[in-house]
UniProtKB/TrEMBL annotation:
One of its GO terms (molecular function) is catalytic activity. Gene3D superfamilies: Nucleoside phosphorylase domain. The lineage of its organism: Bacteria, Pseudomonadati, Pseudomonadota, Betaproteobacteria, Burkholderiales. One of its GO terms (biological process) is transmembrane transport. This is Purine nucleoside permease. It holds the Pfam family NUP. Residues 1-27 form the signal peptide. Keywords: Signal.
Length: 349
């Protein structure tokens, strides 16, 4: 082989590794550039609003628990997907975020857990508004009212038996030992006080159908116009109904040392337990609007009340879901507008 051919062959063999090395170097530089890009900073959540369900879309149709909140705070916000949560989270530039968590204790609390642990959010200084519709005993509340919880009590976590297997008139519930730390939660009295101070005088919506429906009940509380109040919220997966079950809920509230039972709902105690294990409960609020009574009027049976004939429902649902946001947004807006005073904890009243 001539020296000229040998030189050409050497150049050919050398050229391939050089090109490969150049490609590898470029790819490596590109990878380093991509990997060194700083991840997006997590959203610093000042207030998180939790709703349980929405009827249709988030805006423009019949409103469920989320729509009025969405239209006030997140109409132009992009959804943030969270693996493990029922629905995406929405946030605005002021640090107000919210989501639909799902109905019932397991559904809602699993969504809350997924959101709290997601690195896209910073909940280290967050306040929480657990928001939704509910029932109320006619001796304590009325259709359209809005209530801030002082206590959250789990209706379950105990033993129950049939009334016919009991002495007449005695309770058919016994608390089970071992659940003391998560069967009831006393919410921060200072925060409840602030909520009432900021929202007690909120003008509330009412309807002719709700006014007419209230007159079926003899109780003075049931016949009241909508108001903003406080009391114990009872969380149970069972949609309990009737004077006997209502009496039992009041019995449980008193047994646990809580305030009067005024609201029946299905999520708040479970969501609060999740928040407690990560950030404590000092910044948790439970806000509920009553859309039904927890029992029928004296002229109807419990089953008739549970399955009313057409035109016999309570009415006032649309007004109540609006009332919830009207009341709650006063507190949310105050916290955000005065964040330097609230970021470190609930100010003294």
């Amino acid at each position: 082989m001539s020296s000229f051919k040998s030189s050409l062959l050497a150049v050919r063999w050398l050229a391939v590794p050089a090109a490969a090395l150049l490609f590898t170097a470029c790819a490596s530089t590109s990878t380093m550039t991509a990997s060194t890009q700083a991840p997006a900073a997590p959203v610093k959540v000042k207030v998180f609003v939790a709703a349980m369900f929405e009827i249709g879309k988030n805006t423009g149709d019949r409103a469920g628990e989320f729509q009025h909140w969405y239209e006030r705070y997140w109409k132009d916000a992009k959804p943030i997907a969270v693996p493990g949560a029922l629905q995406p989270v929405y946030c605005n530039a002021d640090g107000v975020c919210g989501s639909v968590l799902g109905m019932g204790k397991v559904n809602s609390s699993s969504s809350m857990q997924a959101i709290l642990l997601n690195p896209q959010f910073d909940f280290s200084q967050s306040y929480y508004v657990i928001s939704g519709v509910a029932g109320t005993p006619p001796s304590r509340g009325t259709i359209g009212e809005v209530s801030w919880a002082t206590w959250l009590v789990d209706y379950d976590l105990g033993h129950r038996w049939a009334p016919e297997e009991n002495k007449p008139g005695e309770p058919t519930f016994m608390p089970r030992k071992g659940y003391e730390e998560y069967r009831r939660f006393k919410l921060n009295p200072d925060l409840v006080g602030w909520a009432m101070k900021l929202s007690a005088d909120t003008p509330l919506k009412d309807s002719d159908s709700a006014r007419k429906y209230r007159l079926r009940y003899p109780d003075a509380a049931a016949r009241r116009a909508p108001f903003v109040g406080t009391g114990t919220h009872m969380t149970g997966d069972t949609f309990f109904h009737g004077p006997g079950m209502s009496k039992q809920a009041q019995y449980i509230a008193k047994l646990y040392g809580a305030d009067d039972y005024v609201i029946t709902e299905m999520e708040a105690a479970a969501i609060t337990l999740v928040i407690k294990r990560t950030h404590g409960t000092d910044r948790v609020m439970s806000l509920r609007g009553a859309v039904n009574f927890d029992q029928g009027n004296p002229k109807e049976t419990t089953l008739q009340h549970l399955d009313p004939a057409p035109g016999e429902t309570a009415g006032g649902f649309a007004e109540t879901v609006e009332n919830i946001e009207l009341v709650g947004s006063r507190v949310v807006d105050h916290i955000v507008a005065n964040w330097p005073k609230w970021s470190g904890g609930v100010p003294k009243l």
